[in-house]
Amino acid sequence: MTEEEKERNVIVCRCEEITMGEIRDWIARGYDTFDELKHILRVGMGPCQGRGCREIILREIAKMKNVPVSQVDPGTFRPPSKPVKLELLAEEVDK
Amino acid sequence: MPEEWKNTANVVVIGAGIQGCSIAYNLAKLGMKDVVVLEKDTPTAGSTGRCAAGIRAQWGTKMNCQLGLASLEILENLHEELGMDIGLHQGGYLMVAYKESEFEQLKKNVALQNSLGITSRVVSKEEAYEICPTLSAEDAVGFTYHHRDGHADPFLTTIAYHKAASERGVRFYKFTECTGIKVKDGEVKGVVTTRGEIDAPVVVDAAGPYSQHIAAMAGIKLPFYSERHEILVTEPVEFGVCPCMLMSFSGNYYIQQRPIGSIIAGCSPEGHPEDYSLGNTWNFLEHMSRVIVKLLPKLGGVRVVRQWSGMYNMSPDKQPVIGESKEVKGFYISAGFSGHGFMFGPISGKLLAELIVTGTSSIPIDVLNYDRFEKGELIEEPAVV
Predict the structure, then answer these.
(1) B292 contacts on A by Cβ (under 8 Å)
(2) Any signal peptide, and if so, which residues (chain A) (predicted)?
(3) Where do the H-state alpha helices sit in chain B?
(4) Which of B166, B185, B262, B303 is the least buried, fewest Cβ under 10 Å from its Cβ?
């Protein structure tokens, strides 16, 4: 297996089990923003909310578009910042 | 790589949500060349990608029943047609009535639906509990169900249209906002955008929550407004706790479980204020969590991972406007879906493309012109959350 093939098999998003190869393929098709990749591959939508994969994907977009990482939109962050149980949220109302 | 800018086109579509992508794909399929789609963000970044994913034929007007059923039929074969999985799940919609008057209306809707070939039916509480094994609705007075309703992935469905349209030569310009419509002597001439102008004899307003603003650029007054609806999603849990879409008009909720296991739940804002912001509130999180835990008590320990909001583009009778403007020739509208744009997209895009290419549509939609509002010929839809 070549280095390139090995890299393609690396799981980048562990929540949704998305590989580097899938991410590179979709960027190559023109879906080259974090939010577009999120919409198609669900990266950043799992329990970790992109804490594991976001930086890696932003670096990959930058590399493939040949721009600095600082110019790549990090995509949307959504609340809550940490998963919260429904029963805890529901109880809060009764206090 | 900077993409080539086209100064002219046969059709310019404004908005790459489900409407714009479906219209563009269907135009290309009918042989229309030189179609350009403008999107101020990225495809499906607006209302489509924010919606609750529901698809249904359980409606209260003949028009919506026809559109709903025709759309289901397209969605059932869309993976094959577009060559991409769209995350279709037909677990049915279970409508829950808490008031006698509401149940009477649901029963009337079922009679209408049945007369149009939709096999919805009234179900008992025992049957409702079989359809949704974790449901607790002792205070409900009645239920209706249609097994072909369900949900599809709004992102994947729209991207599937987007990709298929691109492969058929449609040009999509993302991060390109429409800032003006060129009209001369009652005819549309093209668009002005943040990246330049495009001359075109046909312009389609598929701008979702901003459709009335786009129409105003052509001098057309659409009596629409947009309102913010909030929604949340949980971590995935074992599939089967809520295999159907649970929906109630008086209960003001819709709750479903995606095949991946996450529960999605949303409701309408109190008082339905006009609101173009896309913020999130703590109030919604508390309210929705309480509704979910009451209806599906086993879910108490499940965690909310994300909340967001999106806009409904409301029309006076909660039915869309689909067709050509009578004031500005060549200016077409597909908007005002009042929260149901995603589920109608497959059929509305097809019908509008037919209208543009052939001048007629396979389902007559003349009544969906916006002059109905001025004439007072509203077709009020009762089955809306």
Answers:
(1) 86, 90
(2) none
(3) 18-29, 47-50, 62-76, 78-82, 100-115, 125-131, 154-167, 211-217, 282-295, 341-358, 371-375
(4) B185
**Which residues does B contribute to its contact with A (CB < 8 Å)?**
42-45, 49, 155-156, 159, 163, 166, 234-235, 260, 280, 285-287, 289-290, 292-294, 299-308
Which residues, 6+ apart, have CB-to-CB distance to A28 below 8 Å? A64
Chunk chain B into consecutive blocks of 10 residues (it has 385) and report each block's average pLDDT, rounded to whole numbers. 84 98 98 98 98 97 97 98 97 98 97 98 98 97 98 98 98 98 98 98 98 98 97 94 96 95 95 91 95 96 96 96 98 98 98 98 97 93 85
| Number of domains forming the structure of chain A | 1
User: pTM of this prediction?
Assistant: 0.96
- What are the φ/ψ torsions at residue A65 (nearest 5 degrees)? -95, -5
CB atoms within 10 A of CB B119: 12
* B304 contacts A84? CB cut-off 8 A: yes
**How long a stretch of residues is chain B?**
385
Burial B127-162 (b: 16+ CB within 10 A, else e): ebeebbeebebeebbbbbbbebbbbbbbbbbbbbbb
DSSP, collapsed to helix, strand or coil, labels residue B174 as coil
Domain that holds residue A85: 3-94
Regions of chain A with pLDDT less than 50: 95
Contact B150, B89 (CB under 8 A): yes
Using CB atoms, pick whichever of A31, A78, A90 lies closest to residue B289: A90
Find the CB nearest A92 among B286, B299, B304.
Answer: B286
Task: Report the 10 Å Cβ neighbour count for A8.
Answer: 16
CATH of the domain at A55: 1.10.10
Residue of B nearest to A84 (CA): B303
Pairing state of beta strands B142-146 and B93-97? antiparallel
Q: What is the pLDDT of residues B258-315, one digit of tens each?
A: 998 999 999 999 888 999 999 999 999 999 999 999 999 999 999 999 999 999 999 9
Could you give the 3-state DSSP secondary structure of residue B38? Answer: strand
